[in-house]
Amino acid sequence: MSTETKNERELKAVIGVHDAAPGTEVPDVAPLAFGGNRRSAAEEARTIVANATHGTLGSLSEDGTPWASLVTFGVMDDGSPVFCLSTLAEHARNLEGDRRASLMVSDPFHAGEILAGGRVTLAGAVKRSDEHPDEESARAAHLEAVPSAAMYADFNDFSFWILEVDRVRWVGGYGRMDSASAEDYREAEADPVQPQVPDAISHLNADHPDALLLMAKAFTRYEDATAAKCTMADRYGLDLQLDTPAGEKAARVSFTDRVDKPGGLRAATVDLARRSRQKLGA
Amino acid sequence: MSTETKNERELKAVIGVHDAAPGTEVPDVAPLAFGGNRRSAAEEARTIVANATHGTLGSLSEDGTPWASLVTFGVMDDGSPVFCLSTLAEHARNLEGDRRASLMVSDPFHAGEILAGGRVTLAGAVKRSDEHPDEESARAAHLEAVPSAAMYADFNDFSFWILEVDRVRWVGGYGRMDSASAEDYREAEADPVQPQVPDAISHLNADHPDALLLMAKAFTRYEDATAAKCTMADRYGLDLQLDTPAGEKAARVSFTDRVDKPGGLRAATVDLARRSRQKLGA
Q: What is the DSSP secondary-structure string of B173-232?
């Protein structure tokens, strides 16, 4: 699955320093390596792209300069982004001249320091919708994500453009990064719980720190943890940050089953807390 | 100053349709043409860039594909963005291979529909800081904008990169767009009042609709306006949206003098209201 190079692993080690707050011990477990099921790079990429409706297009100017410009997009079932551009706009003229393109999308749920947030670059070649076998789906995908495009999509100078992805590069924040194959990307599913994650994390940390600590004691190697905070959640489990006698540690706890419904995060977390109490006899 | 083409003027006319809310009359005055002093495209670009600390870099992959990726940046006195990149990261390797690059930056103060917001693309060629005559200023500019870069800037694999801008393309929202020459961009000044604008607009609309209406009656051709709302503000004046017997109209009112201090927007607006009352004998 992972196609990271030795250099990238080194970079993770170097940049991992940032993961610790000033004055805390650096976690001795790399963020991507603390165990349990988690989303693949392909799933991370699909999740970011499924929840965003704008990004930055990289296209080629007539003189070969890479041209970065704002675009809105929708997403087809196979993860291909679809743009709606006027031929009068520079980026559309660029695509007419050279079909190579990429799209950078930032995680729309991330708040705070930008480099700590997720983002993905999808690269490949575009097709104008009249060159694409499924013009109607492309159109529908764009209009679903960007309803206001209905006001101009039918103007003569506007076309839909589909980016057929052949390279995927995901960065999850400091020290979290990986590539995905085009095939893995096409077949991966966006995490349905993602829209609930920010509220779920706030709720867990505000109202259930005791349950999080029980999860850590029951299902991580830090049985001596004294406090736990949820730092990330997904359909497979929770990332925790723990206070332990040996300093601050990062850990992962997994749900019994993958969550398959948008609203299923709460039930999975309640189940994990229940199993923690059961295992600890608490 | 303007380098827009006939096509772009046509696009403005077409896209101008969006400026009106559903059910309202389309303003008969194009947003860029409703008179009074306003910021040039170069000033708009410098203002966006001065207030943002991240954007999307366009670089060239080894195979020539344009590669869009997230970057943080600072800005030198001449408007050149400065990045701090690891040679282990793909975009830095791209810049090593081909110095052509661009940077897309969105207006960090814009909220709401993304295509209605400002953004700018700066294109040119990068220099690694050891190739730049003012390495120290480049470093200082980046660290001022991105203080957390101090944690990794001195690692061996990180370098500062300066984008020497030779093309500037600003889009201010639907139907507002223009290019600026590299020289105009270098010499332009960021609008010092920009950080105050969102609060100023909220305050004016919430607490002073009567003063806005007086401004419209005194200083626009809509003496018969019945309501006024501020839609934009800058160091030169205010953009107003007016209810008139002939429908919804856009108009511009200018301050007596350009505001030169970050906190000067309030005094200039109070002065404009005072002159409106004076002129109308109200």
A: ETTEEEEE-HHHHHH----TTGGGHHHHHHHHHHH-HHHHHHHHHHHSS-TT--EEEEEE
> What's the pLDDT at B210?
97
- Which residues make beta-bridge pairs with A240? A230, A251
Write the DSSP assignment of A67-130 as a string of letters: EEEEEE-EE-TTS-EEEEEETTSHHHHHHHH--EEEEEEE-TT--S-GGGS-EEEEEEEEEEGG
d(CA B154, CA B173): 39
Asked if pLDDT for residue B127 goes beyond 50, the answer is yes
* A101 φψ region: left (φ > 0), alpha (ψ -120 to 50), beta (else): beta
pLDDT of residue A92: 97
Contact of A57 with A69, CB cutoff 8 Å: yes
* ipTM field: 0.87
Does residue B88 belong to the interface with chain A, where contact is any CB pair within 8 Å? yes
Q: Residue B68 is nearest to which of A18, A54, A68, comparing CB atoms?
A: A68
Chain B contact for A88 (CB, 8 A cutoff): yes
Q: For residue B272, which of B254, B245, B250 has the smallest C-alpha distance?
A: B254
Q: Token pair 């969105």 is at which residue?
A: B106
Query: Does B68 contact A102 at a Cβ distance shorter than 8 Å?
Result: yes
Distance separating alpha carbons of residues B199 and B270, to the nearest angstrom: 15
